[in-house]
Design brief:
The structure holds 2 protein chains of 2 kinds. Chain A has one domain: TIM Barrel (Alpha-Beta Barrel). In chain A, strand 8, helix 7 and strand 9 form a beta-alpha-beta unit. In chain A, the strands form 2 sheets. An 8-stranded parallel beta barrel of chain A has the order 3-4-5-6-7-8-9-10, surrounded by 5 helices. A two-stranded antiparallel sheet of chain A has the order 1-2. The mean pLDDT of chain A is 96. Chain A contains 11 helices and 10 strands. Chain A is 39% helix and 14% strand. Chain B has a single domain, classed as Dihydropteroate synthase-like (TIM Barrel, Alpha-Beta Barrel), CATH 3.20.20.20. Chain B has an 8-stranded parallel β-barrel, surrounded by 6 helices. The mean pLDDT of chain B is 96. The chains are: A alpha/beta, B alpha/beta. Chains A and B meet through helix 6 and helix 7 of A and helix 11 of B. Chain B: InterPro entries: Dihydropteroate_synth-like_sf, Met_Synthase/Corrinoid, Pterin-binding_dom. Chain B: This is 5-methyltetrahydrofolate:corrinoid iron-sulfur protein methyltransferase. Chain B: Keywords: Methyltransferase, Transferase. Chain B: It comes from Candidatus Jettenia ecosi.
Chain lengths: 319, 261
């Protein structure tokens, strides 16, 4: 029996966004990363060009995270106090495609570090690794508006991906990124309508659409993954049918969210029936990532080297 | 919504004068204004006043193409004028229009295919314009059959069920909604559903209101293209809003801004 061809035809696709700038483009990166470009539903390459492979950004913090379990800190034990060395280890040993520097330390409740400290950290990472950099503020609007412009200026020309901007706080960072040649992450917490709105607002400041990456906030497996999934799926369908304000590549924060779950971080003694944390922690992160990949994700922020390796293998086999 | 801007038509005095004097200014302005208003296509019709309609069609198209990149809809009832227009086309193009007779479609569809053009097909034939749903659908089905026979992409076919002015036959508009619905299900992918919108309210005192309400109701039944006054901002915004209500775009507070782009 002949199997009917049920492939859909799509008229548009996800924008391509390039992160990082090499020497000839005014930066100092050894390579750039381009994401997006898909003209089909994820992994359905018989419907169109699947675009660029999803990439993994490994998180590096400017202060040692105080909520990480021993399973998560051990692979970074020798570098956790030195963001530059931490980034280097992620790239050289654990195969990170890019680094996501999370500036938790500038948050007024988590150290209240200064803009100068943040600039120093950014510069040290740019010097230590050749991959493109994502720089993520502390999500405290006032402090981010004070620190991120200085960070942006310090990394001028490197075409970093800076975030995040929201409907209520986007003007300062958008203007800064525009001036310093960086790309930007727009955020709407699990709300596709606000997600589109923030993209419109940023684009109305003449920010180029091909320098925007969307973040819908991420739910880990068992903690709202399906909400992120369905929004990202709908965004991809909107992109494929020509919605210019929904055609940006998508980033999700898998590492941080997965490792907050009790299933990932509980001690072995407390839940012996769940098996060893050394296995289940990375597994929780891996499953969260591979599930969300199917909804249409372009950049995945991750933490544990074993999860990173497993998800990279999955991506390589499916693409 | 595929909006086909109707304004570059020799029936309008400014365009008629422009053709007569070979003065491109009015045409250029209309091309720019309609493009800025969000027209998907610019309809070009030379009207009846010129002695050399094929030459006038070519001139109009060249003037427009030198001014904007918006695709053109070549509007004529004469095959030769359509052909003349196609000979100078540079971008995407729509032919407006062919009747639904098999012999007409046998002429127009290969021509459209040759120029990779889309084609509006009217559900009328040598017997005239049907007054009912059934006979219109019969012609619509023949149009689809012909497209399949000519291996002409159905996504390039625009079926126009020929909307009567409301002050001519008030029973007609309501029949259209049923037809849009049925055409949507005629094939996969289905042909587009098109109407000449201004025709519907011509000669009435509430021309714009009637057009706006018909368009929004039509969209809710699957109308997705219209030859219309794209310079009527309320009409364009009503169309976008109807599409938002029908969940054809993702809502956002600035959805009008987003869709106007």
């Amino acid at each position: 029996m002949e199997i009917p061809n049920v492939a859909d035809k799509w008229t548009s696709g996800v924008n391509e966004v390039t992160i990082g700038a090499t020497k000839d483009k005014g930066g100092s990166r050894q390579k750039t990363i381009t994401v997006g470009g898909s003209k089909c539903i994820p992994f359905m390459d018989f419907e169109g060009n699947p675009g660029h492979k999803p990439v993994i950004a490994m998180d590096v913090y400017d202060i040692p995270p105080d909520d990480w379990t021993e399973t998560l800190t051990r692979p970074f034990a020798d570098v956790i106090n030195d963001p530059a060395q931490w980034a280097k280890k992620c790239v050289e040993q654990y195969g990170a495609d890019l680094i996501c520097l999370k500036l938790d330390g500038i948050h007024p409740d988590k150290g209240n570090k200064s803009a100068e400290d943040a600039v120093k950290t950014v510069k040290s990472i740019l010097a230590a690794v050749g991959v493109p950099l994502i720089i993520w503020g502390c999500e405290h609007d006032e402090k981010d508006n004070e620190v991120m412009p200085k960070v942006s200026q310090a990394a001028r020309g490197e075409n970093c991906l800076l975030g995040i901007v929201s409907q209520d706080n986007y003007k300062t960072l958008t203007a800064t990124c525009l001036a310093d040649g960086h790309s930007i992450i727009t955020m709407a917490p699990v709300d596709i309508n606000i997600g589109k709105q923030i993209n419109i607002l940023v684009s109305e400041m003449d920010f180029p659409l091909n320098r925007i990456v969307m973040f819908q906030s991420t739910g880990a497996l068992g903690y709202g993954l399906e909400y992120s999934y369905s929004i990202q799926e709908r965004e991809r369908l909107a992109a494929l049918t020509g919605d210019k304000m929904m055609s940006m590549p998508v980033i999700c924060d898998v590492g941080h969210e997965a490792w907050r779950s009790k299933e990932a971080k509980s001690n072995d003694n407390d839940v012996p029936q769940w098996g060893p944390r050394e296995e289940r922690g990375p597994m929780w992160e891996t499953i969260t990532a591979t599930s969300l990949l199917q909804s249409g994700v372009d950049i995945i922020r991750m933490n544990h080297p074993r999860s990173v390796a497993a998800v990279k293998k999955c991506i390589d086999r499916l693409y | 919504m595929i909006s086909i801007g109707e304004r570059i038509n020799g029936m309008f005095k400014d365009v008629r004068e422009a053709i007569k004097n070979k003065d491109p200014k009015a045409v250029q302005e209309l091309a720019i204004k309609q493009t800025e208003a969000g027209a998907s296509f610019l309809d070009v019709n030379v009207g009846t006043a010129t002695a050399d309609p094929a030459g006038a069609m070519k001139w109009l198209i060249e003037v427009i193409q030198d001014t904007v990149k918006t695709p053109i809809a070549i509007d004529s009832q004469k095959f030769d004028i359509i052909k003349a227009g196609l000979s100078v086309i540079k971008n995407e193009v729509l032919i407006n229009s062919s009747k639904g007779d098999p012999e007409e479609l046998d002429k127009y569809m290969p021509l459209a295919k040759e120029y990779n053009a889309s084609l509006i097909c009217l559900t009328m034939d040598k017997c005239g314009i049907p007054q009912d749903v059934e006979r219109r659908m019969e012609i619509a089905m023949k149009i689809v059959e012909k497209a399949v026979e000519h291996e002409y992409e159905l996504s390039k076919v625009y079926i126009d069920p020929v909307l009567f002015p409301i002050n001519v036959d008030q029973k007609q508009p309501a029949l259209m909604f049923d037809i849009f619905n049925q055409i949507k299900m005629i094939s996969d992918p289905p042909p587009h559903r098109n109407v000449g919108l201004s025709n519907f309210s011509q000669g009435t005192k509430e021309k714009r209101l009637l057009a706006r309400i018909f368009l929004t109701m039509g969209i809710s039944y699957g109308l997705d293209a219209a030859v219309m006054d794209v310079l009527d901002k309320d009409l364009m915004d009503a169309a976008i809003t109807a599409e938002i209500i029908m969940n054809q775009h993702v809502y956002s507070d600035s959805y009008l801004t987003a869709c106007r782009k």
